[in-house]
Known about the structure:
Number of helices of chain B: 7
Shape of chain A: extended
CATH topology of the domain at 49-197 in chain B: Diaminopimelate Epimerase, Chain A, domain 1
Distance between the termini of chain B: 74 Å
Order of helices and strands of chain B: HEHEHEEHHHHEEEEE
Low-confidence stretches of chain B: 1-12, 22-43, 177-182, 193-197, 270-286
Mean pLDDT of chain A: 87
Structural class of chain A: alpha+beta
Strand content of chain A: 35-45%
Number of strands of chain A: 18
Largest interface: A-B, 91 and 69 residues
Structural class of chain B: alpha/beta
Number of strands of chain B: 9
Mean pLDDT of chain B: 73
CATH class of the domain at 49-197 in chain B: Alpha Beta
CATH architecture of the domain at 49-197 in chain B: Roll
Low-confidence stretches of chain A: none
Oligomer: heterodimer
Number of helices of chain A: 6
Strand content of chain B: 15-25%
Radius of gyration of chain B: 28 Å
Distance between the termini of chain A: 84 Å
Helix content of chain A: 10-25%
Shape of chain B: elongated
Largest sheet of chain A: 10 strands, mixed
Amino acid sequence: MINYKCPQCGAYMIYNPAKKCLICEYCGKTEDIKVLSAEEQAELLQEAEASSEVWEETVTDETNGEQVMMRHYICKNCGAEIMTDENTAATMCGFCGNPTLIEDRLSGETRPTKVIPFSFSREEAIEKFRAWTKKGKLTPSVFSSSASLDKVTGLYVPYWIYDFDVDAQMQATATRVRHQRKGQYEYIYTDHFALDRGVEVGYERIPADASKKMPDDVMDRLEPFDYKEMVAFEMPYLSGFQADKYDYKGEELESRAAARASSYAETATRNTMNGYATVNVVHKNIRPKRTKMEYTMFPAWIVNYTYQGKSYFVTMNGQTGKIVGKRPISVARAIGWFAGVYAGSFAIVLLILAAMMMG
Amino acid sequence: MKVGMKYIHARPIWLRVCMMAFCLMLMGSVWMTTAWAVESLESGSAQKVFDQASLFTESQAEALEERAAQIAEEEQYDIAIVTTNYTGSMVTYEYAESFYEKNGIGYGDNKQGFLLLIDMDNRQVYIDEYNAWEENFQLSTRERDAILDVIMEYAYDGDFYGVADSFLDELPQYLNNGISGDADYQYAIEHGEPGQERSLTFGEAVQESLPLAALAALVIAGITLIILVAVQKTGAKPSSAEYQKGALRIYRRNDTFINTTVTKHKIETSSSSGGGGGGGSSHHGGGHSGGGRSF
């Protein structure tokens, strides 16, 4: 259990997305993570004496009945209890906000090779969420004002990213149609073709989220991430955020990414069979070969909110701000829009048709 | 940190009902097209009424025979009134055309004339015309429809004499031999512009447009709602282009020609229209044109 300490004033340092550096919230001192050597980084580290201040307990997860190992720490700053589950790699003291990293879950084979840091702050995330609640013609007018924020969590989600070289073989029958008129008869000529394709195509950095608790579908929709901002992993990026280590090993998720690569390659190959009236694929053999696999962490804001007594959440891409979620639908607004558009278009179409009939 | 909450996702039932109704309305849309073609070919046949299905009494048949012969003489086009119980393998219009040709119906060199077929086999009334590059002998689709409007009223009541009798009343009104323009003039008096859609009053135009406008508005409003509902949900899946590395390398590309198959079909314009009081059809080609309706 570690955290970063300001060399100037001794306060805690957290990662600031706007300044893209480690910053002391107290005195404003900044440290550029990219230029920090390993020794300098180590100097900023403050290690908690583990032994007496850590204890573990096993609790049952209410949602799926699984046994979960919870580890408890004592916050070195305020003495409050910091509770982590078995995957927590970074968290904050719920009481004083003291950023805490669990080193052994970020080292060795659980050390990510790359990270995409958060690109905007919690305040901006809240602003983006607020803007989202105001959009959508069917959104109830009270949604924006009455959806109360419960929790906005900046979470580094563990992802495996894969490179694939795909070899796609595809055979198909295709037809082209010609028409010719001879006197009273029309002749339809159908030319039949046999198509054969062999295609090689590479895909890089196809992501698959390695977190059990994040729904795969939501995480897929959170894409794309901009890989230009992906940097070599350093622990300070996690300071001040939550982070989870992977639940699944890279090999376990490979098939998911391979399926995506295969599907992309299949579509690409099918698209080379152009210029025909019909194409019927009779045989295909698509073999994806993984060439690279990396463990990474990508940023996401999880915005929990309550609307009309119920809890919901949306997931926001912590780099691009893309929101995956669904705004509630106001039945009254939907009926209003339908009736309004119906009445308006009915009147216009009626006038146009009547005018046409009258010549 | 546990994320145990769920998204708002259930699509309300009313919305599903709206969507379903919208789809049904789309499928129920009716397509109407009409087209016609004309072409031509001595004196009218001796017999005018061929009551094979015995729909007329003897006196009725005689009356019709007399009137038809009179009109044919005066107007210089032949008239045949045919009834049948059995058309064999032919459909109504084929039977009418075939009957016309086999029984020597037609006036003058052009064999111009009209055949009214009451087909009890297929329960259709069909008007076949043979002639007629001369406009005077040509019924426009609208004129034929106007005649059918009148005579079908009798057919629906099972009064087949009424059908034939009213046909003999109506037909000369639309066709006036030799005096070009008269038919149109007659038509214009009763219905407005000749040979085309008469101009309607605004009220009538609005009334006729109602169903189509209602359908179109439903489509527009439905699509709008679907889009609006879709917008409530954000977060589209990324495209494959995000992850493709370099260009596609196609190392084998064979497009081998195998063979050619040929089908032929006779060019004909046929169409059908539905709705209201029953179906109708019109068929053209080979010098015949016509149209009919079911009863």
